[in-house]
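Quick one:
INPUT:
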């Protein structure tokens, strides 16, 4: 199975909900499949599933993707507390950096 992109799920914008009482979701998007493939083993360690299976189930959250791309184990007390907006910005920066290095 060949993939071009890997899915990143939509997520609740908790900061806006807490500030304004408005439930808003950040849109889903994708990252290059080639960017995450080298981190398959970390995905299996963190989620006990392959990247293909996770993609079939809708993808990763922004925080989960960042942790896998950094080859780190998930620590909910640290990684789960990061604001979704921060994670969105960081993941998009990681994608842009990867693209510029892999042209």
């Amino acid at each position: 199975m060949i993939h071009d992109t890997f899915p990143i799920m939509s997520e609740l914008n908790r900061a806006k909900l807490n500030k304004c009482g408005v439930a808003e979701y950040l849109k889903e998007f994708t990252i290059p499949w080639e960017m995450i493939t080298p981190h398959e083993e970390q995905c299996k360690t963190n989620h006990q599933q392959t990247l293909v299976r996770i993609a079939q189930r809708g993808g990763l959250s922004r925080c989960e993707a960042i942790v896998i791309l950094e080859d780190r184990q998930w620590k909910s007390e640290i990684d789960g507390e990061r604001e979704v907006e921060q994670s969105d910005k960081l993941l998009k920066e990681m994608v842009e950096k990867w693209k510029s290095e892999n042209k």
